[in-house]
Specification:
By secondary structure, the protein is α+β, with helices and mostly antiparallel strands. The protein has helices spanning about 15-25, 35-55, 70-75, 75-90, 120-130, 160-175; strands spanning about 60-65, 100-105, 110-115, 135, 140, 145-150, 180-185. The chain starts with 12 loop residues before the first helix and ends in a 7-residue tail after the last strand. InterPro entries: Biofilm_reg_signaling, GGDEF_dom, Nucleotide_cyclase, Rev_trsase/Diguanyl_cyclase.
């Protein structure tokens, strides 16, 4: 005898809540809870549009933690993870200064700085994060970072190019002994 059971495809409140949770998880880093790379790409156009409308600059700041692997090697991955959470908390605290943090990968973060016309002052807030050692469990960790900056609309009006230029400037900063923060200049991408 054939089974003619009826299955309901109604969306329940719990299913809607679960879908919202999955969407949130897809757009945020699983460890640090900061918006992730996917969210950065989704957000760039609106940040650039707002900067265009307000006739201000938008800074794309790429931060790479120097020698992060050593933290994992010396203290273990648990301490490395706790360090990343503390780093994320410090970066997220910058939001009151119109700075939005994103966690791209293990040791890479991006900041979008709105109204970046006074960039030097804003970057002092960013670099100050590394002046205070990180206290993770019983470990006191002093770390540095290499930082690259690109500017909308000065260097590009394309989101991918702005990230690319910030990355190039970051690698130039990493290879420099005296300057750990570099603003992109034409010629760095060669």
């Amino acid at each position: 005898m054939a089974d003619y059971s009826f299955y309901s495809f109604e969306t329940t409140g719990a299913q809607i809540e679960a879908m919202g949770k999955w969407k949130y998880l897809a757009l945020h880093h699983e460890l640090t809870d900061l918006p992730n790379r996917r969210m950065l790409h989704m957000s760039m156009e609106s940040y650039m549009a707002r900067a265009h409308q307000q006739q201000t600059k938008l800074a794309v700041v790429l931060i790479d933690i120097d020698q992060f692997k050593k933290i994992n090697d010396m203290f273990g991955h648990y301490v490395g993870d706790q360090f990343l959470i503390e780093m994320s908390n410090r970066l997220a605290a910058l939001s009151e200064h119109h700075i939005q943090a994103f966690h791209l990968s293990s040791d890479e973060f991006v900041l979008l700085i709105e109204s970046a016309d006074h960039l030097e002052e804003r970057m002092e807030r960013v670099t100050a994060i590394f002046d205070t050692p990180f206290q993770v469990n019983q470990n006191r960790i002093l770390i540095s970072a290499s930082i690259g900056v690109s500017l909308y609309p000065d260097q590009s009006i394309d989101a991918e190019k702005l990230i690319y230029y910030a990355d190039k400037a970051m690698y130039r900063a990493k290879s420099s002994v005296e300057n750990r923060c570099r603003v992109f200049q034409p010629g760095l991408d060669e």
